[in-house]
From TrEMBL, chain B:
Name of the protein: Branched-chain amino acid ABC transporter permease
Organism, scientific name: Leisingera daeponensis
Keywords: Amino-acid transport, Cell inner membrane, Cell membrane, Membrane, Transmembrane, Transmembrane helix, Transport
Family membership: Belongs to the binding-protein-dependent transport system permease family. LivHM subfamily.
Membrane topology (UniProt): Multi-pass membrane protein
Automatic annotation (TrEMBL), chain C:
Compartments it resides in: Cell membrane
Pfam families recorded: BPD_transp_2 (PF02653)
Annotated source species: Leisingera daeponensis
Identification of the protein by name: Branched-chain amino acid ABC transporter permease
InterPro entries: ABC_transp_permease, LivM-like
UniProtKB/TrEMBL annotation, chain D:
InterPro entries in the cross-refs: AAA+_ATPase, ABC_AA/LPS_Transport, ABC_transporter-like_ATP-bd, ABC_transporter-like_CS, BCA_ABC_TP_C, P-loop_NTPase
UniProt KW Nucleotide-binding keyword: yes
Pfam hit, one: ABC_tran
One MF term in the entry's GO annotations: ATP binding
Protein name: ABC transporter ATP-binding protein
PANTHER family: CONSERVED COMPONENT OF ABC TRANSPORTER FOR NATURAL AMINO ACIDS, CONSERVED COMPONENT OF ABC TRANSPORTER FOR NATURAL AMINO ACIDS-RELATED
SUPFAM superfamilies given in the database record: P-loop containing nucleoside triphosphate hydrolases
Keywords: ATP-binding, Nucleotide-binding, Transport
From TrEMBL, chain E:
GO molecular function: ATP binding
Gene3D superfamilies: P-loop containing nucleotide triphosphate hydrolases
Species the sequence originates in: Leisingera daeponensis
Region (Disordered): 1-44
Domain of life: Bacteria
Signal sequence coordinates: none
Protein name in UniProt: ABC transporter ATP-binding protein
Domain ABC transporter residues, every copy: 44-276
Alphabetical list of SUPFAM superfamilies matching this protein: P-loop containing nucleoside triphosphate hydrolases
């Protein structure tokens, strides 16, 4: 019909509420993917991708559901979101599944979501906690760490991850001296640092967020001389952490989802000039989530969720040509030609089972104030 | 047995952070308690006033940093603080003029003021995010430590380190100065006494020729200054994020009430009680006891009364226990 | 214009707003019946919460800032009543947990007894301390291992003691009961204090309740959330697969997806309306009877009411428990509507202060006012964001594309929500201080 | 009827009531006078259950009522009025009276929903009774006014009226006269007298106005420093040296000077 | 409860959010002082044909006139709710006077705020809560002198001479004093401004006869220093006995006016207001 087709992508994130400081960057990440696709002009007869932001408020199911309904009413073809596990579950059960809408969450990692009746409509680019726990235990073990103190951000991500780290690390013979929760958004962490320090351990593993409580804990622990090496799971890995903490962080290590493909570095380069913080948590995942939706549409040659839902796993996993950030145009071309791709993206996406990221992991170490790659696991 | 190390560990992880956090709470509670004592209502917007004050200070700090102004080893924010205070005073007086004054003229009941402050809280909440955004803002600079754990260990040869951050020292010193000045002001100056008189008996103050609007104005100015100082010190020592300041409201209220609402002395005591109870009851005493007790008695477990998850719950449990035995707070409340 | 007419018009206004939301997509409306019903459903629940708070505040002047806690307890009731029984949990540690809790309760009772019946002095303090400390350690000794064994059962999906497997509708009254029980404890303590410190007590205890929900995984999985709670209504997907339903939908000229989603939401709306009307009727009847007269007397002058033989403390406790129970029921309804319990999502701004805005704006002391406030404020709570975006677009339409200010303004639009709530509250307090539908 | 034995009430180190012992005879109108701060109001408050005594015992008709809360004392027939009228200001005068009787079935929530018939009957009876009381007090015309809007004296009458809604045995009046115009005060005095005579109420009256005391009270008890100082008829009390010294005084000293000036 | 919706607190008295102690009830008629102008003659202080009421409420005073001249004691009596306190407040600028004027020492001060009237030399002792209970006796007196910028130690000595008991208790919180002593503090506080006229609202309400006599003695003494005194009294007989001028107010209107002796002798007045 003469006009280029329009694909509408809903971005449902908590622009207000507890993680309001993260979400603008996440949304920008997703919009970056959309813009890249639009610019390539290769999506379904050179369709333009319009993004529509809507607030999930992170902790307000009422707002989240209403926003999701609004996105649907405005004709969204897919939803990138939501963020916090609570609202994600609510939107999934009450809006997405009943309406047959595809949702890819960049950050909801609750194991409960895995088993939720989702009719094959729900995916997430954040890796499963179970797998990361294994990797972290191995990293710790290989570095000769015998005992750790463990603190987690008190939500489903932190809790699930810390459970998994604890059981895996104990399984390989390590000792966990203490497991202490911390709340995000409450500036004072003296009590937590005090308890952690008293329990002791070679390394303090912080299963939190690098710009929330996790940062406060690390700062407190360093300042008081309680710990000088930290174990950093994915939520803590990003360039802003060494920048904020300073040289004392050197020598700390951790892992983040990622594969040989160097997707993360590419993504960092691509996003460097933009006016958002690409090192903030879940920005890469957001990019990937948006990209996956669009790629799946291309693969199915349809913007109807019912059609492209089944293609999400296909484009995300092998076999096929590995795709890094910035190569979305190329991927669209391959798909249009009937080829196969293996989307890697910024976070080394690998979806297993009921649609969550299994992922290979990139072991990192902080050296000279930079996040450097040690090896891939 | 190693008492010295036990003492250092305790100081490092309990006393120093407790003092700093306690001072921040005390400064916040002072503001709440002054409003309660003089303007007669609990100001729910106090946390957000603190956020606003810190925000203005941060903006000015950035300006100073960008033109290369600095306070040497001390944070630049100290230079910006007076501007923050001025900005917050302006906001407080503006709010009073546009919002609260009307209700004062209507002789509205205190609980109406509480609800009004709820509305102000919502608005300020939005305003701060509108201006500086919801994100984390860092503005600390200058020397980080008065003494760092490593230096301390090197100096003393002890196993345990003792770290005192500049911001912690600054917090405590500032709090002491501010409190001393405030007490001098309230008890010795004419204006201070007129504020106490107004708090004691509004009508009689009027009949004595004390201008109520003046008293209210001074109160807001002092409270705005206190809020800004508390907000900035908290931001320097921890970090600035609008969301955290709303969360601070609860421990601040708890402090003010434990101490006895309306009583400045109580606010200070309350601040430290809440801060130390949060730290000590959830503290794992293992390390201190291991150092402090003979080896045979050294504990195996963590010796932690409650997990840190419940540190908030602890301050409230303490609050309720205090109220059960001392219904008006530790220091008889309601007297400025 | 008479007052009745004005008040009717206000209700009509809310109704029209919701209808417009369903019918048209001009301005900030979305033109989706689903969206309209979503707003309506949460509006009804909010109205019920507002009635609960109004009973406490409007009838008796009790300032409850712990609404969040009672709502959360209602949510907990849904998990405890309606999720399936987990026999392993009971066999492995359930009994131990129950025993430990009984132990804890006994310790507290013993402590209270000791303070009541032993003469004050050093001996009493000593006995009290011994009993408390011993009780605490015995409690922890039984509790901790039982909890770990329960939490060890299939932690990814369960790890809690599960529920009773009863119909979910039973959870609504159960939520009320649970909240009432908690309110009774709080009221006993806080209303018994010589000075009244209800506000700070409720504020604190609500935080404690949330802390328990977040951290006691054996109870309701803590922050790992309970999802997929049973529903009183069929699942949309099942309806879509049910040929007879599809046929009926077609006869109404609807596609199965819209028909099923609207059907379920309308079903909820119906159920919520029934509950709301029942509670409204009960509240009105009570208010207009000698009971209401007594409550007004207590409100007017406690000392005199006490001297006239009214047990003020007991009545305050009664009304506090009742209001909290209603919040508990609403909490259970909300959890049912969401089909999940997410303890991390309870925060005071949304679940306490927003409800207060509803009550104040609607009209404290007037049940119809509370209902109006609940519906109206909820509508704004949801719709202010699109309104804000619309407004910002209008404001920035003159600005250059890509200007930093424009981007900043557009991005800040979602923060208009809190701002607007504050503004509405201040405007109402200023120009109609008794609320939109004042108490007679 | 009421016996107070060695009652103490301490506020911190201050002994407001310090070993007071007194008896109040059935059917009497007892006056209670004494200097400011003698502990009269405190004694009242302890007897009426507003304050807990530090030690001592209060009995009523032989039954120990020490420390019972006010609402329980009410049900035992012990009522009080307040120095400053405590009307229920947002309710009509009639409602002020109707709310008084205890054990109304309409005060139980359950009945407000499922026992409406019974409530309606009870309400009719209550209403009739309230109107009767208003008639007695000669204030029928204010029955439907909000109690907050009637005059101070009418409020005082209303307070008295509340005690007539139930079968009170003993009524404590705290400074009915303070700030009340004399003429009105004597109207109240008449009402008190009639209640005493017609219904057999026992009254205890705190008052500083000797004329009022003179009209009503026999016997009169004078308190000072938390103890009973003297007891007897007003004339006896007036003649009591201690009472004159502590309370009554000997009139103006400066009056003559004033007249000399003029 | 008043009908002002802003004053409806539903009976809340929760100490964790509201502080009811010492809250005021008085509302100045003007937030800012208007102009004053000279007028000739008339008594020293006069509220002349005042009509007005509280806020937007109905008129409570109707053409009510009260006045006091140098060296006089003027007493206002009348039934409860007659508007005696209201008339005092009107003179002090706490009431919206819709017509009529208030003149002090040959100056029309109708448009002044209460604070400015204090500066012009008016001293007022309200009926209740007339001291700062949490402050010491001396601080109470200092607050009395709040508007003075000169050295007020002399005045304080004079007050102590007048009320010797206060000198002994100067460092004690005023709230710990007995009723009679409190009244002395209250009068002393008002005297600290060196007022040109002193207004007292029921200084002897609820006070035992002995203290009442003591207070009247003191008041006479103060009056003898040449300070005009305008007071409201319920103990009408005693008050009228020492009064130079008496006003009987009924429903906001002057019902009877005359010297104290005349009023005491008037059978109408005796019957209606003095209890025969
Ligand atoms: N709650 C209290 N706390 C401390 N002291 C109190 C309290 N209540 C009363 N008092 C003190 O107890 C003493 C006796 O007071 P009370 O009111 O009983 O005197 P009273 O005989 O009624 O005097 P009056 O005739 O002035 O009413 C006074 O000195 C008073 O200050
Ligand atoms: N703040 C107020 N607002 C509105 N009306 C008031 C106010 N204060 C008093 N009134 C009304 O004004 C009228 C006169 O009251 P006022 O206090 O002047 O009487 P009074 O002669 O001093 O009586 P009393 O002898 O009892 O002190 C009364 O009807 C009273 O209800
Ligand atoms: Mg008394
Ligand atoms: Mg008066």
């Amino acid at each position: 019909d003469g006009h280029a087709k329009e694909v509408k992508l809903g971005i449902l994130l908590g622009f207000t509420g507890p993680i309001e400081s993260l979400t603008p960057h996440m949304a920008a990440g997703a919009e970056m993917a959309a813009a890249e696709v639009t610019a390539s002009g290769k999506l379904l007869d050179s369709a333009t991708v319009t993004t529509m932001r809507a607030d999930s408020a992170c902790v307000d199911n009422g707002i989240a559901i209403a926003s999701a309904e609004k996105l649907l009413a405005e004709g969204a073809n897919g939803i990138m979101g939501s963020d916090c596990s609570g609202v994600t579950g609510a939107v999934l059960q009450n809006v997405a599944v009943p309406n047959g809408m595809v949702m890819i969450s960049p950050s909801a990692s609750s194991p409960g979501l895995t088993t939720m009746e989702d009719n094959g409509l729900f995916f997430r680019t954040t890796p499963s906690d179970a797998r990361q726990g294994e990797v972290m235990a191995q990293v710790l073990k290989d570095r000769g760490v015998n005992s750790i103190a463990l603190t987690y951000t008190n939500n489903d991500y932190g809790k699930g991850l810390s459970d998994s780290i604890k059981s895996n690390f104990e399984a390989v013979g390590g000792e966990v001296t203490i497991v202490a929760a911390h709340e995000d958004g409450k500036g004072d962490y003296s009590a937590e640092v005090g308890a952690l320090a008293s329990a002791g351990g070679d390394v303090l593993v912080v299963a939190g967020y690098l710009d929330q409580g996790g940062l406060g804990i690390i700062q407190g622990a360093l300042d008081s001389g309680a710990f000088d090496t930290f174990g950093l799971p994915d939520g803590m890995v990003g360039d802003s952490l060494p920048t904020n903490v300073g040289p004392d962080l050197d020598g700390s290590f951790g892992q983040i989802a990622g594969s040989q493909s160097k997707g993360a570095e590419v993504f960092a380069e691509l996003a460097a000039g933009k006016d958002f913080d690409h090192t903030s948590a879940y920005v890469g995942e957001s990019y990937d989530a948006a990209a996956l939706i669009l790629l799946a549409m291309q693969a199915a040659n349809s913007t109807a969720p019912a059609d492209y839902a089944a293609k999400v796993l296909e484009v995300a996993n092998a076999p096929g040509e590995p795709i890094n950030p910035g190569e979305l145009g190329k991927a669209l071309e391959i798909l249009a030609a009937g080829g196969d791709i293996d989307y890697q993206g910024a976070t080394g996406v690998e979806l297993i089972g009921p649609g969550e990221s299994a992922g290979s992991y990139r072991e990192i170490e902080i050296k000279d104030g930079k996040v450097t790659t040690v090896q891939y696991r | 047995m190693d008492l010295l190390n036990a003492l250092v560990a305790l100081t490092n992880f309990v006393i120093v952070p407790g003092l700093a956090y306690g001072s921040q709470l005390a400064l916040g509670a002072l503001g709440v308690t002054l409003i309660y004592g003089i303007l007669r209502f609990s100001n729910f917007a106090h946390g957000d006033t603190m956020a606003f004050g810190a925000m203005v200070t941060i903006l000015v700090t950035w300006l100073f940093q960008s033109v290369g102004l600095s306070a040497g080893p001390l944070p630049t924010a100290l230079l910006a603080l007076p501007f923050g205070i001025l900005g917050t005073i302006a906001l407080a007086l503006f709010t009073d003029k546009t919002v609260y004054r009307f209700y004062r003229q209507q002789k509205a009941k205190p609980v109406i003021f509480v609800m009004v402050s709820l509305g102000v809280m919502f608005i300020m909440n939005g305003l701060v995010r509108f201006i500086i955004g919801p994100g984390d803002q860092r503005f600390t600079d200058g020397e980080r430590f008065v003494i760092s754990a490593r230096t301390f260990k090197k100096l003393t040869g002890l196993d345990e380190g003792l770290a005192i951050k500049t911001t912690e020292a600054l917090t405590v010193v500032t709090a002491v100065i501010v409190v001393a000045v405030l007490f001098w002001f309230l008890n010795k100056t004419r204006t201070g006494k007129s504020m106490r008189a107004y708090s004691d008996n509004e009508d009689l103050a009027l009949l004595s020729g004390i201008n109520p609007e003046r008293v209210v104005m001074y109160t807001w100015m002092i409270v705005a200054a206190l809020a800004t100082i508390a907000g900035v010190l908290y931001g320097l020592d921890k970090s600035f994020k609008p969301f955290t300041y709303f969360q601070l409201l609860l421990p601040i209220f708890a402090s003010a009430i434990v101490g006895g609402l309306g009583n400045p002395l109580g606010a200070i005591a309350g601040g430290f009680i809440i801060a130390f109870s949060e730290v000590t009851i959830t503290y794992a005493w293992k390390k201190v006891l291991t150092y402090g007790l003979p080896d045979s008695l050294a504990p195996d477990g963590l010796v932690q009364l409650l997990s840190t998850d419940y540190k908030f719950a602890v301050s409230f449990a303490i609050l309720i226990v205090v109220l059960l035995f001392k219904p008006t707070g530790l220091f008889k409340g309601k007297a400025v | 214009m008479t007052d009745t007419m004005k008040h009717t018009l206000l209700f009509v206004f809310v109704g029209v707003m919701i209808l417009l939301e369903g019918m048209t997509d001009v301005l900030f409306f979305s033109g989706s019946w689903n969206s309209a019903l979503v707003i309506l459903n949460m509006g009804l629940i909010s109205a019920i919460m507002a009635i609960g708070v109004n009973i406490q505040w409007g009838f008796a002047g009790l300032f409850n800032v712990g609404i969040m806690g009672f709502t959360a307890l209602g949510g907990l009731a849904v998990v405890l009543v309606s999720t399936p029984v987990i026999p392993e949990a009971w066999s492995s540690g359930g009994a131990g947990i129950v025993m430990a809790l009984v132990m804890g309760a006994l310790t507290v009772v013993a402590a209270v007894m000791i303070t009541k019946f032993m003469p004050a002095g050093r001996l009493r303090a000593l006995v009290l301390a011994v009993v408390m400390i011993a009780g605490f350690f015995v409690y922890r000794a039984i509790f901790d291992p039982s909890v770990s064994s329960v939490e060890a059962i299939n932690p990814a999906l369960q790890g809690n003691i599960g529920g009773l497997g009863l119909p979910v509708l039973l959870a609504w009254p159960a939520g009320g009961l649970l909240a009432a029980g908690a309110a009774w404890l709080i009221g006993k303590t806080a209303l018994g204090l010589r000075s009244d410190y209800l506000a700070i007590a409720t504020l604190g205890i609500a935080e404690i309740i949330i802390a328990v929900l977040k951290n006691e995984d054996w109870l309701s999985r803590g922050v790992k959330n309970v999802v997929g709670l049973p529903r009183p209504l069929p699942y949309e997907v099942d309806l879509q697969n049910d040929p007879s339903f599809v046929e009926r939908a077609a006869s109404w000229g609807l596609d199965p997806v819209t028909a099923s989603t609207v059907y379920v939401k309308a079903g909820y709306a119906l159920m919520f309306t029934v509950v709301l009307l029942a509670l409204l009727w009960m509240a009105q009847m009570a208010l207009k009877s000698p009971w209401g007269r007594m409550m007004r007397a207590i409100r007017d002058n406690e000392t005199a009411a006490e001297a006239m033989g009214k047990d003020v403390t007991r009545r305050h406790l009664q009304i506090f428990v009742l209001g909290s129970a209603i919040c508990g029921i609403a909490g259970a309804m909300m959890t049912t509507l969401d089909s999940q319990l997410t303890p991390g999502s309870y925060n005071p701004l949304r679940f306490t202060f927003l409800i207060w805005v509803m009550v104040i704006v609607g009209g404290s002391g007037n049940n119809f006012g509370a209902v109006l406030g609940g519906m109206l404020i909820w509508f704004f709570w949801i719709k202010v964001e699109p309104m804000g975006i619309l407004l910002m677009e209008l404001v920035t339409s003159g600005m250059a594309e890509g200007s930093a200010l424009k981007a900043h303004l557009l991005e800040s639009a979602s923060h208009m929500r809190l701002f607007t709530m504050g503004l509405i509250l201040l405007l109402v307090l200023r120009f109609s201080p008794r609320g939109l539908i004042p108490e007679k | 009827m009421i016996v107070v034995e060695d009652l103490h009430k301490h506020f911190g180190g201050f002994h407001a009531v310090d070993g007071a012992s007194l008896e109040i005879a059935k059917g009497s109108i007892t006056g209670l006078i004494g200097p400011n701060g003698a502990g009269k109001t405190t004694l009242f408050n302890v007897i009426a259950g507003v304050l807990q005594p530090t030690s001592g015992r209060v009995t009523m008709d032989g039954e120990d009522i020490t420390g019972l809360p006010p609402h329980e004392l009410f049900h035992k027939g012990l009522l009080r009025t307040f120095q400053i009228a405590h009307e229920f200001s947002s309710m009509t005068c009639r409602e002020n009276l109707m709310m008084v009787p205890g054990n109304q079935s309409g005060e139980t929530l359950w009945n407000t929903w499922f026992g409406r018939k019974r409530i309606a009957d009870e309400e009719r009876a209550l209403r009739a009774k309230a109107d009767e009381v208003l008639e007695f007090l000669t204030i029928s015309h204010i029955a439907d006014l909000k109690a907050g809007q009637v005059s101070g004296g009418q409020k005082k009458l209303l307070e008295l009226g509340r005690t007539m809604m139930v079968d009170a045995k003993i009524v404590f009046l705290d400074e009915v006269g303070a700030g009340v115009n004399r003429t009105l005060l004597y109207t109240i005095a008449d009402a008190i007298k009639r209640l005493n005579e017609e219904r057999g109420y026992t009254f205890v009256v705190i008052e500083h106005d000797m004329e009022f005391i003179d009209r009503l009270c026999d016997p009169v008890i004078c308190m000072a420093e938390g103890k009973k100082l003297a007891e007897g008829t007003l004339d006896e009390i007036k003649a009591n040296e201690q009472v004159i010294e502590a309370y009554l005084g000997t009139g103006l000293k400066n009056k003559d000077k004033l007249e000399a000036d003029a | 409860m008043s009908d002002n919706p802003y004053q409806d607190d539903h009976g809340n008295k929760d100490a964790s959010i509201t502080n009811l102690k010492g809250a005021g009830t008085m509302q100045p008629a003007h937030q800012k002082s208007g102009p004053t102008h000279k007028v000739d003659g008339g008594p020293f202080l006069i509220g002349d044909t005042m009509t007005g009421g509280y806020g937007k409420g109905p008129d409570i005073l109707h053409d009510c006139t009260i006045a006091v001249d140098k060296g006089e004691i003027a007493v206002i009596v009348g039934p409860n709710g007659a508007g005696k306190s209201t008339a005092m407040k009107a003179v002090f600028g706490m009431l919206n006077v819709r017509s009529g004027t208030v003149r002090l020492d040959g100056e029309d001060i109708t448009q002044l705020t209460p604070q400015d009237r204090v500066i012009k030399g008016m001293g007022f002792v309200p009926q209740t809560s007339n001291i700062f209970t949490s402050m010491t006796v001396e601080e109470n007196l200092e607050m009395g002198a709040f508007i003075r910028t000169d050295d007020f130690r002399d005045t304080m000595e004079q007050v102590y001479d007048l009320f010797p008991i206060l000198r002994d208790k100067r460092n004690q919180p005023a709230g710990e004093l007995s009723g009679g002593q409190r009244q002395q503090v209250a009068v002393g506080r008002a005297l600290m401004t060196k007022p040109k006229v002193l207004m007292l609202d029921e200084p002897t309400a609820g006070v035992s006869p002995i203290v009442m006599d003591e207070l009247f003695d003191r008041i006479i003494e103060v009056a003898r220093t040449g300070l005009p005194i305008l007071m409201v009294e319920q103990n009408a007989k005693q008050a009228l006995e020492i009064a130079d001028k008496g006003y009987v107010l009924v429903q906001g209107r002057n019902a009877y006016t005359g010297t104290g002796k005349e009023l005491l002798a008037d059978p109408e007045v005796r019957k209606s207001f003095l209890g025969g």
